[in-house]
Amino acid sequence: MKLKITRVEPLPPARLRVTWESGKQSEVDVGEYFQAPGHERLRDPVFFQTVQAEEWGHGVEWPAADIGIPAQALYRLSKEQSGDAFPTADFNAWMERHDLSLSAAARALHLTRRTIIYYSTGAKPIPAYIGLACRGWEATTRRHVA
């Protein structure tokens, strides 16, 4: 899916209102980026206000510091934060908790390995039903072990 941002508005201290090419808007908390290497300047409220949509709409940027966040990441975060997607961190924690490789997670959920890679890296939002499937798999596995 190609996502294109037409407008972005800062909502300090850590939120952005993103307008997508479709006309829909999302409010996204980008506070997790404040701790990411190379993104520390985002903590400065004055600097945070200088955000703009990238020229071709493939993300947002703060050109003075060569900092950016891709549209795909903003879309995924907006879905996770609204409850429409299972958080990537929770998915990865599920895999780690059960010592599942990418291939093993794919077999457990009856998905392709490529899909698991997309989900585990945050390249694509994880549908809420996959979160339910992870919880169901976990409950079933516990029952069989006990």
Notes on the structure:
With 146 residues, the protein is an alpha+beta fold. The protein has 2 domains: 5-82, NE0471 N-terminal domain-like, CATH 3.30.2020.10; 85-145, 434 Repressor (Amino-terminal Domain). It is built from 6 helices and 8 strands. The protein has helices at 45-48, 71-82, 88-97, 102-109, 113-121, 128-145, and strands spanning 5-11, 15-20, 25-29, 52-53, 59-62, 67-70, 85-86, 126-127. The strands form 3 sheets. A 3-stranded antiparallel beta sheet has the order 1-2-3, with helices on one face. It has a 3-stranded antiparallel beta sheet with strand order 4-5-6. The model has no long low-confidence stretch (mean pLDDT 94).
Widest sheet, order of strands:
1-2-3
At the fourth level of CATH, the homologous superfamily of the largest domain is: NE0471-like N-terminal domain
So what's the CATH class of the largest domain?
Alpha Beta
Low-confidence stretches: none
List the helices and strands in order.
Answer: EEEHEEEHEHHHEH
Structural class: alpha+beta
Shape: elongated
For the sheet with most strands, the description reads: 3 strands, antiparallel
Strands, total number: 8
CATH architecture of the largest domain: 2-Layer Sandwich
Amount of helix: 40-55%
- From the alpha carbons, calculate the radius of gyration and give it in angstroms: 18 Å
Tell me the fraction of residues in β-strands, as a range.
15-25%
